[in-house]
Structure formats: C-alpha cells, structure tokens
Fe(3+)-transporting ATPase (Maritalea myrionectae), 238 residues
Amino acid sequence: MAGVKIDGLEKKFGSLRVLKGIDLDIRDGEFVSFLGPSGCGKTTLLRSIAGLEEIDEGQVVLGGQPISKLPPAKRDIAMVFQNYALYPHMNVYKNLSFGLSLNGVPKAQIDERVQNAARILQITELLKRRPKQLSGGQRQRVAIGRAIVRDPKLFLLDEPLSNLDAGLRVTMRVELANLHKRLGVTMIYVTHDQVEAMTLSDRVVVLDQGKVAQFGTPLELFYAPRNLFVASFIGSPK
Ligand code: ADP
C-alpha cells in the first residue's frame, strides 16, 4: 500500500513562505493532480515529496513510512520532468537500464524490467536508437520508461507533456491514463492546465498561493467549488 500523507508541510525560500501548511491524504493507487496558476507552489510541493527540497515543517508519509528525513534515492519514488533529459550518447536500452545497473540490480533482472517497460510503452522497436533519432513523443515515452523500470511506489510527473505539440499532448494524455490503469500505482501530476487535470485525475488539488484551496474530484470542483478562487480558476479559459 502506498498512499501519500502530508501533514503541516511548510516551505520557505529565504523569507518567502511558499508552502503554508499543506495537509493532504492521497489514497493508494490514486491519480492526483496539483493544479494552480504559475507560482502557487505546485513544483515545490512535488519536489518536497521527492526529497529534492528540504522542508521546514511537517512530514511526508509514503505507504505508512515517514520519508521526510530520507535522501531522495531511498524514497522509492520516480520523477518524470518536463525537460526529460535523456543521455544523448546512450541508446534507448541503455537509457532505461543505466540507473538500474548503478544500483547493482542483476543483469537478467534489468533485461526483464527494460523489456517489460518497453512493451508497456510500445518502444520495443526503438531500443537500439539514440535519443536524437526519436520524435518528441517517443522521447517522452523513454523518460516515462526510466521511471517504470524502477518499479517505484509513487510516480511524480512535473508537467511532462508541456513541451509537446497540442495533438501529441492529447495522445500522450490518453497513454498516461492507460499506463496508470495498467500499473495501478499512485501518481501525482503537476499541471497548470485544467483540462489535463480534470480529464486525467481521480482527484485534483487546487493550490492558491501555497495553500490547498480545494481537494476533490473533478466533478466536485466543477459543480461545487469551495470558494471564488476555485470557481474562477476552474471556469477560466486557459
Ligand atoms: P509553480 O510550480 O506552481 O509554478 P513553484 O513551486 O515553482 O510554483 O514556485 C512557488 C514560488 O516559490 C514562486 O514564487 C517561486 O518564484 C518560488 N521559488 C521556487 N523555487 C525557488 C528557489 N529555488 N528559490 C527561491 N524561490 C523559489
């Protein structure tokens, strides 16, 4: 079981209070989006869960285990960024397997995990290619593949589709939804795109200046916004 519980999380950058007491209870296997305007703290919250930011107060619990004091590599979390930097000099197979070999995973197991991720993402044909021989969507799949091979308890995705053109975004959105169904793993997705959040998520966290304005299903946000901020953000054109 790997739900995520966040209690009283506070984060400052110097004197700037960026996260102001975040409490969240995300269920095992849920797809949750962090949605809100630029600068509201979405990425900082995600990075705090991953351990890439040191938090000032509060704690993060993953699958019942407090993880706030653990280094990122020990958290059993995989993160996919917007700038999914692949290793340019390695082929796709190597890009997928490299992290596992560093962690001392046996070769046979590495191969099994890479082949399995490649099958799920339909990139088996591309394993021998270098990143520069791939399209944007294919590169994004490889980046997601690098997360899948680690078999994490939690996936964190930071605007992973924002560099793709509009048509491809829609395709990849469907693929992500399918991937979530197939893996059944908890996923947290950061976006400022309300359509993306509403179509992909079981529940959405709307953030307003470092606070949770509302945490609910897309329908709840749409039909029962808790305050004016949520109502105007959800209803506004992109
Ligand atoms: P979002 O992802 O919602 O756009 P961020 O979490 O990136 O928001 O940023 C929230 C606030 O924290 C912004 O005001 C941003 O300028 C500030 N911030 C983010 N990272 C840093 C940092 N490393 N140093 C100083 N301020 C930062």
Notes: The chain is about 35% helix and 25% strand. The pocket of adenosine-5'-diphosphate is lined by residues 13, 16, 18, 36, 38-44 (CB under 6 Å). Residues 99 and 146 are 8 Å apart (CA to CA).
